[in-house]
Amino acid sequence: MCTIIETLFYCKRNSENIFVNYQIYLANVFNSPFKMNLHIINGPNLNLLGIRQPELYGSRTFESYFLQLQNQFKNHSIYYFQSNVEGILIDKLHEIGFNSDGIIINAGGYTHTSVAIGDALASITAPVIEVHISNIYAREPFRHQSYLSRHCKAVIAGAGLSGYSFALQLLTQQNDFSK
Ligand code: CA2
């Protein structure tokens, strides 16, 4: 008799445990943010951020700002790549452009000259946001033209380094910017 009661009690406790575990599983599925692989690509001369022309581009290095971004978007993997060479930027876009969950590109001066980077953006599937630290529309007329913008989901210009953070916010929210 005692064994039967003990067995029934054990079964009840066990089924409660299963039920609680199932609730935890569901909570994880619905609440845990989807981990995204996001890429920041900077073009020519942006390796000089924080070193030259601070009056125009600020006094912070991108490496230091990148650590802040990684901390701010802890739930996601954020990668950073910089090159001064047009073809290397294009190779990088081909490499990540079909698997990345979002690309933020500041192509520097190539923004205003590179049909080839524009073509690379047109050929990839990842959503892309174009960022400029300065307000290119308040500068020389040749900076008002971008060969990239038509292939991008959004363009952010003039917000300083915070433009990268705004772009990451757009990519990580559930909206039309994500894949
Ligand atoms: O405002 C931006 O982010 C730009 O993409 C920056 C480019 C410029 O050609 C674009 O028109 C707008 C220039 C990047 C040069 O970066 C430097 C940073 C520090 C010191 C010198 C250059």
Radius of gyration: 23 Å
Report the uncertain regions: 1-13, 18-32
The number of distinct helices, counting runs of at least 4 residues, comes to 6
Beta-strand content estimate: 5-15%
What is the string of helix and strand elements?
Answer: HEHHEHEHEEH
CATH H-level homologous superfamily name of the largest domain: Dehydroquinase, class II
Reading side by side through the largest sheet, how are the strands ordered? 2-1-3-4-5
What kind of oligomer do you see?
A: single chain
Number of individual domains: 2
CATH-scheme architecture of the largest domain = 3-Layer(aba) Sandwich
**Derived structural class:** alpha/beta
Mean pLDDT rating: 86
- Which fold name fills CATH's third level, the topology of the largest domain? Rossmann fold
Taking the alpha carbons of the first and last residues, their distance comes to 61 Å
Shape category: globular
- Bound compounds: ligand CA2
What characterizes the major β-sheet? 5 strands, parallel
What's the CATH class label of the largest domain?
A: Alpha Beta
Number of strands: 5
Helix percentage range:
40-55%
